[in-house]
TrEMBL record:
Keyword Transmembrane helix among record annotations: yes
Name of protein: L-cystine uptake protein TcyP
CC annotations in GO: plasma membrane
Family: Belongs to the dicarboxylate/amino acid:cation symporter (DAACS) (TC 2.A.23) family.
Ranges annotated as spanning the membrane: 6-23, 35-56, 76-96, 108-131, 186-204, 225-245, 265-285, 369-389, 395-417
Alphabetical list of Pfam families matching this protein: SDF (PF00375)
Subcellular localization, as worded in the UniProt entry: Membrane
Keyword presence, Transmembrane helix: yes
Organism: Enterococcus cecorum DSM 20682 = ATCC 43198
GO molecular function: L-cystine transmembrane transporter activity; symporter activity
Domain of life: Bacteria
Length: 463
């Protein structure tokens, strides 16, 4: 009977995949197919949860097969991250006509990423006070106990890491190891190495234009090939979203969601307010937030579903250039920097909330201005180098809590609802990097408002 149920679940899932293929053949818009995949996954996963329940052998087995599509798709995107970061940053130097704009672009992108993170940290702290969240009321079950034990081991990686040492850790010592993603700060290491390659190209261009031209042609070819691979992978998005949402809904612990409902509500409230802050940044450069969110929605939906800022990078850059009118150089810098710097959700709101929740348990007055200011500074600085993949929020929280001498067990106590909150955090992270691209492109007078306001200007996968 168990095998029969498993086969039935897989058969229904395959029918869903075939349906998406038929929609693609009929040229249904890419964004519509993504949303259909999202809602179909919610419905299918929800039904499986209600009918079978978490832990049912048939459900567990069938989800392993379904995740070949979901996790496989995310892995394909993550496969592209390091090559895309490298060719994007170096290509930006190659294509830039005015070399002095590189400094302006970098400064503006970093300003938006870090200033929004500081604001996000403030919002996270204040929302805890508004909701009167008390860490002492969080319960600890078997899963939480196991998680806390894991955190104790992981904390040894960061407990003796001061902020200056953390900054030093960004500098790559072995770029090949960083290209392989062996460190939590590998992404920013690749960004730094790519920037050095780009700066070196500008020097060679002045002294040996012939050799520089050869290198430029090579990088342009690599960029076009990489982006072509990106387009091919992105066409699989509706299938991946369907599989990912099915898994999320089918494996959600509804009892834990109810128990920690207040914390979830507070987290989502803070993250929604941060999206409001993003809207204010857009309004400051005369960009309609409604237009922005409408065009960014497919990318934000995938970020929400996949829980991977890194995996969303290809969609992020495509959306900025094809749909939002951001120039390629700025889009590449904003997308790449946003993977490891100033992630509003994972490195801003979340660590600030946990620190504010747990601080009273060790006698700290969280209403004091000194605590809030210290928290904002620590969170903002610690937001450098947070990996844009699953676990980045945990890493950021351990750094912040450790730097402020606060107990880290709070991170383990919310493990049961972590995936649900992480979905919204990732969406906010990706939105921040795209907003940084739009704002920066405007400030260097490169924002193409015709593309931005053209409702037919969509990402390449719409074609």
């Amino acid at each position: 009977m168990t095998n029969l149920i498993t086969l039935m679940i897989i058969a229904i899932f395959i029918i869903g995949l075939v349906t998406f293929y038929q929609l693609q053949k009929r040229h249904v818009k890419f964004s519509n197919r993504v949303f259909i995949g999202l809602f179909a996954g919610v419905i299918f996963g929800g039904i499986l949860q209600v009918v079978l329940g978490v832990g049912h052998q048939s459900l567990t087995t069938s989800l392993e097969w379904i995740q070949i599509v979901g996790s496989g798709y995310v892995h394909l995107l993550q496969m592209l991250v390091m090559p895309l970061v490298f060719v994007s940053i170096v290509g930006a130097f190659v294509r830039i006509k005015e070399s002095n704009k590189i400094g302006k672009i970098s400064a503006n992108v970093l300003f938006v990423l870090l200033s929004t993170t500081a604001i996000a940290a403030t919002i996270g702290s204040l929302i805890v006070l508004a909701f009167h969240l008390d860490g002492a009321t969080f319960t600890k079950g078997a899963a939480e106990t196991a998680r806390i034990a894991q955190l104790a081991e992981r904390q040894t990686q960061v407990e003796n890491l001061s902020i200056p040492q953390q900054i030093i850790s960004f500098i790559p010592t072995n770029v090949f190891a960083d290209l392989a993603g062996t460190r939590p700060t590998s992404t920013i290491g690749v960004v730094i190495f790519s920037a050095f390659v780009g700066i070196s190209y500008l020097g060679v261009k002045r002294k040996a234009p012939k050799e520089a031209e050869t290198f430029a042609n090579l990088m342009e070819s690599l960029y076009k090939i990489t982006m072509r691979i990106v387009t091919l992978v992105l066409r699989l998005t509706p299938y991946g979203v369907f599989a990912l949402m099915t898994n999320v809904l089918a494996t959600s612990d509804f009892e834990a969601i109810i128990n920690l409902g207040k914390f979830i509500l507070a987290s989502y409230s803070a993250l929604i307010i941060v999206l409001g802050v993003h809207s204010l940044y857009l309004l400051s450069v005369r960009v309609n937030p409604i237009t922005y969110f409408k065009k960014a929605l497919p990318t934000l939906s995938f970020a929400f579903t996949s829980r991977s800022s890194a995996g969303t990078l290809p969609l992020n850059i495509e959306t900025q250039t094809k749909a939002l009118g951001v120039d390629e150089t700025t889009a590449n810098f904003a997308g790449s920097f946003g993977l490891s710097i100033g992630q509003n959700g994972c490195a801003g709101v979340y660590p600030a909330m946990l620190a504010t929740i747990v601080a009273p348990t060790v006698g700290i007055n969280v209403h004091s201005l000194s605590f809030i200011l210290m928290l904002i500074v620590v969170v903002t600085i610690s937001s450098f180098g947070v990996a844009g993949v699953g676990g980045g929020a945990t890493f950021a929280s351990l750094i912040v809590l450790g730097s402020m001498n606060l107990p880290v067990a709070i991170v383990g106590l919310v493990i049961s609802v972590e995936p649900l909150i992480d979905m919204a955090r990732t969406l906010v992270n990706v939105s921040d990097s795209m907003v940084a691209g739009v704002v920066t492109s405007h400030r260097i007078h490169e924002l193409n408002r015709d593309v931005l306001n053209d409702q037919e200007a969509l990402i390449a996968t719409e074609e």
